[in-house]
């Protein structure tokens, strides 16, 4: 008999909506807790439509034209690496959360600020003045997804900083297999992980109404808010914007007896 404390997700089929190293790690962590992960990437990333603007910004970054650069996702780090971007010694880097910070360090970059409480653009804004000793104006490069809300850029401009906001990549939807769609619609999946607003949109568009017996688990409060705005039901919300927190939230749901019977 499986020990619920060591394998609390035993028998759970969990849809993991991203592939690559992130998806592989999440799948491994789910298996360690007894779950059966279904890795079905629902989004992918493509080059920006304005490559000259990105190239020009990265050239200025290497030349030391910016005091700060803000990074809001691990995907942006991939873009920096693929362009072999050089950060001038005097330029400091702010990461929106621990996952992004870890990706920066793994890629060989440094990190000067990570929000201590809220791992989000809003959290970074709340701690910005203290972290930068209230210096205004600063020259800031913000790199973002094409569909990202300009919360950080606009917030920094309101404070009085000189901000250059550049699209680093585009987010595109990826159709999952017919079998995955059929299993989700039939309620044969215990939980669907929602890791961003982009994933939430694909979940809605590709699956429609999620069966009540399937838990919809969001990676943090902001993603939960985005998902609800798109009309998705949200059952589980991770306290932090990290894969570890998301899995722990599922574990808590399982231990609380909310595991649906399929």
UniProtKB/TrEMBL annotation:
Transmembrane segments: none
CDD domains, sorted: HemD
Tree of life domain: Bacteria
GO molecular function, one term: uroporphyrinogen-III synthase activity
Keyword Heme assigned: no
GO biological process, alphabetically ordered: protoporphyrinogen IX biosynthetic process; uroporphyrinogen III biosynthetic process
The entry's keywords: Lyase, Porphyrin biosynthesis
Domain Tetrapyrrole biosynthesis uroporphyrinogen III synthase: 24-248
Record's keyword annotation contains Lyase: yes
Pathway of action: Porphyrin-containing compound metabolism; protoporphyrin-IX biosynthesis; coproporphyrinogen-III from 5-aminolevulinate: step 3/4
Chemical reaction(s) catalysed: hydroxymethylbilane = uroporphyrinogen III + H2O
The EC number(s) this enzyme carries: 4.2.1.75
Family of the protein in this entry: Belongs to the uroporphyrinogen-III synthase family.
Primary role: Catalyzes cyclization of the linear tetrapyrrole, hydroxymethylbilane, to the macrocyclic uroporphyrinogen III.
Protein name, as recorded: Uroporphyrinogen-III synthase
Native species: Cryobacterium glaciale
């Amino acid at each position: 008999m499986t020990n619920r404390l060591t394998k609390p997700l035993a028998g759970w089929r969990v849809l993991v909506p991203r592939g690559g190293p992130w998806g592989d790690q999440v799948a491994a962590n789910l298996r360690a807790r007894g779950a059966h992960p279904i890795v079905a990437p629902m989004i992918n990333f493509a080059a920006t439509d304005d490559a000259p603007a990105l190239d020009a910004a990265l050239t200025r970054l290497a030349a030391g034209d910016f005091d700060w650069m803000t990074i809001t996702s691990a995907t942006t780090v991939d873009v920096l690496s693929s362009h072999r971007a050089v950060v001038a010694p005097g330029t400091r880097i702010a990461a929106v959360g621990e996952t992004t910070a870890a990706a920066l360090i793994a890629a060989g970059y440094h990190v000067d600020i990570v929000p201590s409480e809220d791992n989000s653009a809003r959290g970074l804004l709340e701690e910005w003045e203290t972290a930068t000793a209230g210096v205004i104006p600063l020259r800031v490069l913000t790199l973002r997804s094409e569909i990202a809300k300009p919360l950080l850029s606009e917030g920094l401009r309101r404070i009085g900083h000189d901000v250059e906001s550049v699209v680093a990549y585009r987010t595109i939807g990826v159709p999952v297999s017919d079998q995955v769609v059929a299993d989700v619609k039939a309620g044969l999946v215990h939980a669907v992980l929602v890791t961003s607003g982009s994933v939430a949109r694909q979940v809605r568009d590709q699956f429609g109404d999620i069966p009540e017996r399937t838990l919809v688990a969001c990676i943090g409060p902001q993603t939960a808010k985005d998902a609800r705005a798109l009309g998705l039901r949200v059952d589980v919300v991770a306290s932090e914007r990290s894969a570890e927190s998301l899995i722990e939230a599922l574990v808590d749901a399982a231990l609380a007896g909310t595991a649906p019977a399929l």
